[in-house]
Amino acid sequence: MENLAAKIPTKEQLAEPELTPPARNDMIRKMKICWEGADMPQEDKVCTRCVMDSTDPAITFDELGVCSFCKRYEEVRAHSGYRPGESERELERTVRVMKERGRDREYDCILGLSGGVDSAYMLYLANKLGLRVLAVHVDSGWNSEMAVSNIEKMCQKLDVRLHTYVMDWPTMKELQRAYLLSGVANLDVPQDHLFCAAIYQMARKYRVKYILNGSNIATEGADAPFSLQHTYRDAWHLKSIYRKHGRGKSLKKYPALSLWEAWMGLPGVTKINLLNYVPYSKKEAIETLSREFDWEYYGGKHFESRFTKYFQSVYLPRKFGYDKRRAHLSCLILNGEMTREEALAELARPPYPLEQQKEDESYILKKLDIDPDTWQRVLEAPPTPDDAYFSQQKLFNAARRLLGQKGLDRIKQRRYTARG
Known about the structure:
Elements: H1 2-7, H2 11-14, H3 21-35, H4 68-80, H5 86-101, E1 109-112, H6 117-128, E2 133-139, H7 145-158, E3 161-166, H8 169-182, H9 189-205, E4 210-212, H10 217-220, H11 235-245, H12 259-264, E5 270-272, H13 282-293, H14 306-320, H15 325-334, H16 340-347, H17 354-367, H18 372-380, H19 393-415
Parallel strand pairs: 1-2, 1-4, 2-3, 4-5
């Protein structure tokens, strides 16, 4: 016990002004490990197979240096990923059921179209399969011109109806501002929660029985990386953050998910992870989209949103000490699309030019009424743990203990399988 106590950083150490955010985060990580009675990790340990490292507090390594992210990826890919022959048969059956159930409806399915690689390729694939798709784009106020152009070119050429859900900006601004001031890891929650809730609204409105989901195992893995990021589905957490850091304006115009919708989805509506039925490759998808639609690549995952581009590339590394590119590149390694050496070389370079990072920061702060000095204090303050705010996490933890991870995976599989 004496040895563990000696390793725990003091409050004074955490408050040292010259302590960099990554170093402070490392101290917090060590504190958590000591409290839980676990062994201290080796410094800067990197997986020998992918490029995930010990900046994720929950990651573990086996005796060969292979990380738990790799093992979880393989486990879920074997259970729900692409399997030659079997996946093609299941896709054919799924499409047949979707068309049969959509026979008396205007659309067979609904698809959220961000303009990114995954959703764009999914629209292309759905069209090839003969599905009648309602494409829904959610404008949260952070669209890049390139994203808008990509979406319009695709929908026009494929003759797909596009519904653009425009979020009330004053409401979105207040919620997004509160998140920046909160100091939590996942600043994308206001956007991601909105995207999901808006798709559900459109599904109800048009009585659509299937939602095509761009999430995929091949390029995104099995679970959200980095245990410090809270789920976007938790409306309790979102509202708790707003109560503390908002300016008191109403959120009535912001569509929030109910507890049931957050964890079980819409009754009678099935989500289909279409990309898991094909041998999905990010590189091949980009080549196809560029050739067929003159589609332009943004230079990084989720970079179609100017806010997300800054959040992932600047905020997370500076305040929390981790780089989300590690998870994205690790998936590409495990999917056979790049080598570990190529991924390490990419990590050695900035996510995008430093001058553009400064421009994006200035643009975002001005748009959200946050002065630069206040923002610097947020960046320099210790990271805020998600459990500092009220959430649904205890309920989810109880379900995990009751059902186990395999039980939760089976429930998820049923929610994502067309029946008929």
